[in-house]
From TrEMBL:
Family: Belongs to the GDNFR family.
Polar residues: bias regions: 229-241
Gene name per UniProt: GFRA2
Residues forming coiled coils: none
The species this protein was found in: Phocoena sinus
Protein name: GDNF family receptor alpha-2
Record-annotated GDNF/GAS1 domain positions: 28-108, 118-214
PANTHER family for the chain: GDNF FAMILY RECEPTOR ALPHA-2, GDNF RECEPTOR ALPHA
Length: 331
């Protein structure tokens, strides 16, 4: 146990590398130092480290239930500017990645003698209303979406990271599976052995963690400091919705659909439509349609207004007079 504590202190207090080099390259160490400068963060972090490292008996390395409770208090009561920096810090070497993996004291809060079946672990989580709610949030906010730029629903990295952190401190606690600085893979402590005819469902559940592009991109973006631009508070949905097409005014009856349009006219009108301008309140769209009708009918001086539908030509006055005279002679 003494060796185990010494191992933990090695990663929590610093490595044997040059301090000047570590301060520049180990972002996880910087995050721990920042937490120590905040009274609330330092207090709650020291509390869960102490509880999760306290051996109960030779056969029970710690009180896992109390460890989970202390972790939940830390992530629930400390602002994300401290907890996220420790949990999602970017790393360039294995020493930094191991410090990141050790953030939640996995020997007590995460690992066990044997890996349970993932579906059994999920069922256990669903019996607790808070764990069930946190797991549902994770599936909703970290669901891989191939209709968005970031692979996250509504391109919201922060929602996914918050849902991931919210599951820490429960039986389904996820963590980094190794100390790889670049190949980010996270998973609950479980496997799909013994799933029987439910193996496909079990593998699908496990892939929501291990092969989730939304979660992986969110962690990498936070560590690289690029999540600010990709996770707006009010995300734009233009990337996921089809462009809106405005209803074009009717053309005159004597104009067929196959009439060719000039390139400049098409470009002008297309740009107006893409801006979402409406026919009833846009002078530009009226100009656009006027431009269309005058360019399509060479020599035509008459301007067709957008609001006016196709109108048939009225009989001329001369034709009306001739018809009247013929009717009179017949009588």
């Amino acid at each position: 146990m003494i060796l185990a504590n010494a191992f933990c202190l090695f990663f929590f207090l610093g490595t044997g590398a040059d301090p000047a080099v570590s301060a520049k390259s180990n972002h996880c160490l910087d995050a721990a130092k920042a937490c120590n400068l905040n009274d609330n963060c330092k207090k709650l972090r020291s509390s869960y480290i102490s509880i999760c490292n306290r051996e109960i008996s030779p056969t029970e390395r710690c009180n896992r239930r109390k460890c989970h409770k202390a972790l939940r208090q830390f992530f629930d009561r400390v602002p994300g500017e401290y907890t996220y920096r420790m949990l999602f810090c970017s790393c360039q070497d294995p020493a930094c990645a191991e410090r990141r993996r050790q953030t939640i004291l996995p020997s007590c809060s995460y690992e066990d003698k044997e890996k349970p079946n993932c579906l059994d672990l999920r069922s256990l989580c669903r019996t607790d209303h808070l764990c069930r709610s946190r797991l549902a949030d994770f599936h909703a906010n970290c669901r891989a979406s191939y209709r968005t730029l970031t692979s996250c629903p509504t391109d919201n990295y922060q929602a996914c990271l918050g849902s991931y952190a919210g599951m820490i401190g429960f039986d389904i606690t996820p963590n980094y599976v190794d100390s790889s600085p670049t190949g980010i893979v996270v998973s609950p402590w479980c496997s799909c052995r013994g799933s029987g005819n439910m193996e496909e469902e079990c593998e699908k559940f496990l892939r929501d963690f291990t092969e989730n592009p939304c979660l992986r991109n969110a962690i990498q973006a936070f560590g690289n400091g690029t999540d600010v631009n990709l996770s707006p508070k009010n995300p734009s949905f233009q990337a996921t919705q089809a462009p809106r097409v405005e209803k074009t005014p009717s053309l005159p009856d004597d104009l067929s659909d196959s009439t060719s349009l000039g390139t400049s006219v098409i470009t002008t009108c297309t740009s107006v439509q893409e801006q979402g301008l409406k026919a009833n309140n846009s002078k530009e769209l009226s100009m656009c349609f006027t431009e269309l009708t005058t360019s399509i009918i060479p020599g035509n001086k008459r301007v067709v207004k957008p609001n006016s539908g196709p109108r048939r030509a009225r009989p001329s006055a001369a034709l009306t007079a001739v018809s009247f005279l013929m009717l009179k002679l017949a009588l």
